[in-house]
Amino acid sequence: MFSVKVLSENMFQSIFNPSDIINICTDDLLTSCFNTELNTFIKHIGIGWVILNNKDEVIVECSSSIKDWSSFTCVELGAILSVMLILQTGQIVNIFTDSQAAIDSINYIKINLVNGKNKVQTWYKSNNYSIISSIINLIDSKYLKIKLVKVKGHSGVKGNEEADRVAKNGTERLTCITINDSQQKDLKYDLYWNSKRVDRIIRKFIDNLCKSALDASWSLNCIYRTIF
């Protein structure tokens, strides 16, 4: 059995042929621990995926940690992205996930691009666009044949339960997934705020930012402070 510490694309090629149809189960886990030094709760996010053989035995597993990724959908997309990184060119893969939102996010972008919708509007009107862009970029550049399948989480499905176990290990790993701008599809520019990529619908983010600034200004106004 291979783990994230030793698994590489070359090792993956030694186990599977490009013509093999592979079933991969992904999962994620978010935990919070109180940091006494910082006097605050710190999020620990782990992702994991496994490949089972015909006897439902784990033959390959991978886990990693993620930081600064804000939602469960975002984290599940990160798990799917980690799968894409290791697959070889032309691979046929069924990816089983318990996140319908992650599946819908990827399919929404792919359908709009295939139908010739405006690329700028398609990408920047979507949440988690940088991760989805990296996923689609890997699918296209590696000529992957990917099918996303929804499974019910924590329902006793062998692959999902094993992926959950691996994801728990990922919360403590130092290995983290990051996305470089050059790894994305179609996107020439990214919006950053406080040195962090804004992976949200741009217009909605700016509206919320302006509203927060107005709310803060109103609450700090000395006239209103004396009233309330």
From TrEMBL:
Pfam family of the protein (one): RNase_H
Coiled coil segments of this chain: none
Domain RNase H type-1: 52-172
GO molecular function: nucleic acid binding; RNA-DNA hybrid ribonuclease activity
Superkingdom of the source species: Eukaryota
Name the record gives this protein: Ribonuclease H-like domain-containing protein
Organism listed in the record: Rhizophagus clarus
